[in-house]
Design brief:
17% strand, Rossmann fold, Glutamine Phosphoribosylpyrophosphate, subunit 1, domain 1, 22 helices, alpha+beta, 2 domains
Length: 633
């Protein structure tokens, strides 16, 4: 992706089901769980580089012994930093007392992060500061073991203000008005209630306080806690948590917006945000890793029993399509194929633009995430060319000669790696003129491939959000190759609307597609449309979110996709380049055809999966019209 955006977090959960001695005997290490957590998190490092956290709970510890460990980091390499911190406590024994590192029971009694239940989190900060306090897992502590809660999630809720008010009404005093704090306290509130209700029940039956503690741990109804806590949530989420005595859960939103995968056997229960991370870490096949259903929670009790409970009735499957286009690692079998399909599905538009002239066209991609869609584009180009060759040879009839046939067979699709991202280049110059010149060289190019003023370059990118990098860097550096024309191809449709479920795309004015629509309205003296939409949006500010409509669609209605694409090309073209520039986007149907399981497309279509989404787009447009840079959620 040329325009980097912050997005999506990652979850890693491991519950060891056997005694710790089992793993030592079978795998030869006292740190089987810890090692697996490191791999599971490292294989998801694409999901979070702003901060990392790791928590561990030990089962069946005696009073007075520590049983919860947690460490978080916002270091430049946070995964490395967290695990170096954890492993440092074991390194001291290697020289003087190595036998202790072989004694799993001694380690559990004396050192942190040696228990049976692990929860890790990788954070991309879409909102707020990148501080330790913003890193998951969060910890809600209590002297009662069954009231402790460790929580981490990949989520964004649109109605944090409503949830905050609910907490205040029930008598709480939340320290922040953020979705993380409100979710933690909402679950915590009903965890406290469940504890109290069970305590009162068993007290009336004559049990002692110590007996009641054990009964609560055995009979805590996690399903009921999650049902009561999530009643008012509006957003996309994968929540994972551990209760102090050892019960744990992973809970997915009812539209399946955020991804959730799990694997279980007689040794482990695992949850992660991406399937290949589990496959690689535990060396299991594609079909062994399952997807958590919409609105479902996987609940792992302290005794190791696992159940799947429907917490919220499943709604329409609107899993985030950006997961498939860009966010998730392309090593997933399905995602790899889907990204190729995105490239294949847009080839016909590219061919039409080229007027069939493949001979004077060079295909390439914008590093690095567009590479797989580029393969799909090339497969379709080759399929087209093979069909053309067969038809042309057949059409020769009696005039066919070896020379003519070889001339046709020699035709090939020209493809090269033209753009190379210089990861080490830093734009440290702050003055505009000097900085723009340096920004242009964040990418480098391969020389000697393009025919001067004769070839057209076709460059595929996975998506175009703001268009800033295109204008400041990519188009400038490609123009140094002196092509006749540059066609920028987006494997995703035009991004027209804000996201509010975990992607840092919250402001209307950031989107090049929106700016193009506004420019077209101005060009055609139709700016009154903006005022009319603004009035409609203002009129529904105080309505319940369930009644709010997406009137922002009316900004785009007067124009075809092609008209907006043409204006985008105009807006992103630097004034000082020679090549003609065209921008081609994937259509919504092409996206749905390529990614049939992830149909969430609200940032392209404006059709939000939850009422809160419509409230967010309404607010985002009002902010734009009023010149406010405030986030819409």
């Amino acid at each position: 992706m040329s325009d980097a955006i912050q997005h999506e977090c990652g979850i890693a959960f491991v519950r060891l089901l056997k005694p710790l001695t089992y793993y030592k005997k079978k795998y030869g290490t006292s740190f089987y769980g810890l090692n697996k957590m490191y791999l599971l998190m490292e294989k998801q490092h694409n999901r979070g580089q702003d901060g990392v956290g790791l928590a561990n709970i030990k089962l069946n510890m005696e009073p007075g012994q520590r049983y919860i460990s947690r460490h978080r980091s916002v270091d430049q390499q946070p995964i490395k930093d967290v695990f170096e911190h954890v492993n440092a406590r074991f390194a001291k024994y290697e020289q003087d007392e190595p036998s202790k590192l072989q004694d799993v029971e001694w380690l559990k009694q004396n050192e942190a992060f040696t228990g049976e239940v692990f929860l890790g989190h990788l954070r991309y900060g879409t909102f707020g500061k990148n501080t330790i306090e913003a890193c998951h897992p969060f910890l809600r502590q209590n002297n009662w073991m069954t009231r402790n809660l460790v929580l981490a999630g990949n989520f964004n809720l649109t109605n944090t203000d409503e949830l905050f008010d609910i907490l205040v009404r029930i008598g709480q005093h939340p320290k922040e008005q953020t979705d993380t704090v409100t979710v933690m306290e909402k679950i915590g509130h009903f965890l406290d209630m469940e504890n109290q209700e069970l305590f009162d029940k068993y007290k009336t039956l004559g049990y002692s306080n110590q007996e009641i503690t054990d009964l609560i741990a055995k009979n805590l109804d996690v399903k009921n806690i999650l049902k009561r806590a999530s009643e008012d949530w509006d957003g996309g989420y994968l929540m994972s948590g551990i209760i102090g005595h050892g019960d744990a859960f992973a809970f997915r939103d009812p539209n399946g917006i955020r991804p959730a995968y799990y694997y279980m056997d007689d040794e482990v229960v695992v949850v992660a945000s991406e399937r290949p991370a589990i496959q690689t870490t535990f060396n299991v096949g594609f079909t062994k890793v399952k997807e958590l259903e919409r609105g479902q929670a996987m609940i792992v009790k302290k005794d190791g029993s696992v159940s799947f409970e429907q917490i919220i009735e499943p709604k329409e499957n609107l899993a985030c399509s950006f997961e498939r286009i860009y966010f998730s690692r392309g090593s997933d079998r399905e995602i790899y194929q889907e990204r190729q399909n995105l490239g294949k599905n847009i080839f016909s538009k590219v061919l039409e633009s080229l007027k069939g002239d493949l001979k004077n066209t060079v295909f390439s991609f914008i590093p690095n995430t567009a590479e797989v869609s580029f393969y799909g584009l090339m497969k379709e180009a080759n399929a087209y060319l093979n069909s053309y060759k067969a038809e042309t040879i057949a059409g020769l009839g009696e005039e066919a000669t070896t020379e003519k046939i070889n001339e046709i067979l020699d035709l090939s699709v020209r493809m090269d790696k033209l753009a190379i991202k210089d990861a080490k280049l830093r734009t440290f110059i702050t003055q505009d003129e000097g900085r723009n010149d340096l920004v242009a060289h964040v990418y480098d190019v391969t020389y000697g491939v393009v025919q001067n003023k004769k070839d057209t370059l076709v460059m595929i990118d996975d998506s175009i959000v703001r268009g800033t990098t295109l204008k400041q860097s990519i188009l400038r550096i490609l123009d140094t190759l002196h092509p006749k024309k540059i066609i920028i191809v987006s494997s995703a449709p035009q991004i027209r609307y804000p996201d509010c479920y975990g992607i840092d795309m919250a402001r209307m004015g950031d989107f090049i597609a929106f700016r193009a629509a506004v420019a077209l309205l101005e060009d055609r003296k139709m700016s009154k449309v903006l005022d009319e939409v603004y009035k409609k949006c203002k009129a529904q500010v105080d309505l319940p979110k369930e009644q709010i409509m997406n009137y922002v669609k009316e900004v785009y209605d007067p124009f075809t996709v092609e008209e907006i694409s043409t204006k985008i090309a105009e807006l992103v073209t630097p004034v000082d380049i020679d090549a003609e520039v065209e921008v081609i986007y994937q259509g919504l149907e092409g996206l749905k055809n390529a990614c049939p399981k992830n149909l969430g497309d609200w940032y392209f279509s404006g059709n939000y999966p939850t009422p809160g989404g419509f409230k967010v787009v309404n607010k985002a447009f009002i902010n734009y019209m009023e010149g406010s840079n405030e986030r819409a959620y």
